Amino acid sequence: MTSFYILIFTGTAITSLIFTRFVRDEVIRRGWLEKPDSGRHFHVTPIPRLGGIAVFLAFTVATGIALLAAKLLGIAPAVSSHTLFGILLPACLIFILGLLDDIFSIGYHLKFVVQIIAAVWLYWSGLGIYRLTLYSGHATLQLFIGIPLTILWVLLITNGFNLIDGLDGLSAGSALFSTIIIFAVSVFTHTPLVSLLSIVLAGVILGFLRYNFYPASIFLGDSGSLFIGFLLSALALAGSEKATTVVAVAIPVVSFGLPLLDVFLSVFRRYMNNKPLFLGDDDHLHHKLIKRGFSHRDAVLLLYAVAAAFGILSLTLLRGDMMIGFVLLLTGLGVWIGVQQLRYVEVYELAAAARRMWQQKQITANNLQVRRAIESFHNAAPDLAELCRTLQAALGSVGFCGISISFPQVDWADETLLFPLRRDGQGGCSHLWKAQGSLPPQWELKLELTSSSSGSRFGYLCLFRERASDPLLLDMNLLDDEFRVGVSGAVERALDRIPIVRVVREKPQAVVSRVTGAGS
Length: 520
Hints:
The chain is an alpha+beta fold.
């Protein structure tokens, strides 16, 4: 049987080479080329995009020949025509969908509808998700659970290989690793139809890669990537029927790790940026590697290594359920390290959001402290000394180390009347409650002081912090809104209590001093 599979694989690869070369030359002759006008692609010369035609033709012809050869040699696998056509007919539907998209660029709504129809077709052909040990033991899942799970699986894998089709040979090469894994698992679990179809698909992909690897002379297009992705999702479902249920779920998930990871990152990324989930971008895994300085070829080879690592990990699950915890832990750790190296800003923002949730109790306490200061501003007519004490009590524990107030009359006011504020030589007066010998303020927040009667600006309040790196556990909108209004009224009333200042303010021409901060 081994020699038969080797013969089929070799013959299929040669068939694929012939069909790919023919389709490429014919498409070039007719001028059906994809121009390099997309910011998400990297080719600089027009390239044929209809490589899916060659893949489809080679797979169809090679499958027919393989089945006929197996029958003539007397080693035909136990092939159920119902199962065979249950895979091939919906796969043809997906190929037609991709071909129409390559030619006419159809909308994603129609593409998803057709993919859902193909997934339901698989389910009714006996190739769906019918059991989940963790959920239902060995009992069959109810229809309203099994069909959605099957649809989700097909959509994830089908579109996963389409999403990573952004560098020459990346989607096809990753699919080749996954196909080899499916073949190995099918041999181990004795599912000959899956073994035959997967070895044919592996040969087709290998032959196509001759012209698709960097620098590519033909692209898969949606017709090729969707067709291959759907076939792999169907073969994974068919090959899992004789495996233990938990392993049957874990092996395909891990072996398809690369496209699944790109799908999940794409959904996560677009959700975090509040963008439509189906809007293309240039932050896929391969794009990030190019941005990190990898060459086109090196980025593809690195992702090949990642796909191979996922495949090897999935094969270890054949040892039984006891390996699942170890494999999933190792996979998760590897994914986390890899994503960190790619420096997705969305991951950093998610981590920051998690920290904010953890710190929310302290943020709430600090906000309440500031609100109590705002109440004291409204309920009393403080002098400058009382105002400074209130600000120090409210802001000191939050991380601020001092304040600076600037107003036009500062140059004429008696400094003894401004205590504890002191002129800072920069057109304002400041009060720092930081410890002696500590660093000077490295960060400041400048708030405009406005008159409660006229709404005009009459000065500024600057809040200082010693270290800019320390997190500010406070609602900034609260400072810029209610706090600023409350401080403005309190400062205005405090200045009115200084007689010399009130006289100075009646001068026809006021000198406005400019405040410069300690740094931002």
